[in-house]
Amino acid sequence: MTILLADLLDDLREDHRNMAIMLDLLSRQVGHIRDGEKPDYELIHDIMRYMTVYSDAVHHPKEDLLYAGMQAEQPKLAQGLERVGPEHREIAELGERLRNDIEAVASGAAVTRERILADTNAYVQTLRTHMAWEEDDLFRRADELVNGEKSMFVDISHLDTLDPVFGPEREHSFANLLQNIKDLSQG
Ligand SMILES: [Fe+2]
Ligand SMILES: [Fe+2]
User: Fold this and answer.
1) Is residue 187 scored above 80 in pLDDT?
2) CA of residue 26 to ligand 1 center, whole Å
3) What is the pTM assigned to this prediction?
């Protein structure tokens, strides 16, 4: 499937709005741990499962296509883009570490609250900083490219996985996460 780069950019911005909701949910769990309460491990695990199957596997590779387009078409827009790949890898690694923590808890292993707190915090802070950079800088530069005279298309056939939580077909296994999102929006 080939789509307009402008539409890809819209999709990426929508992903960010959804990822921000995930980070808000994780931040709340950080608050619970700080207050000495038991975190909702199942929810953290669901969030990290979503971040793995969608954000790491679909969102970040789509961004890589956008940034490669910027680099190829307008090198003057490409300053600092070499940092993106390492940051995407770091986010995936921090996510894996947190998922491993939660899976260890589920299997009965001793994992300290301090470690869960530190790893959740590291994930939230690193991804928030990365997303803010993209929204405030990289996506704005990309606007220049997509608003240019030439319509650019990009092939996303290998990345046409629908969002299993916010997309048109919601995966049943994310029902608990969807309920938490609903509760969050209702305050
Ligand atoms: Fe990114
Ligand atoms: Fe992003």
Assistant:
1) no
2) 19
3) 0.95
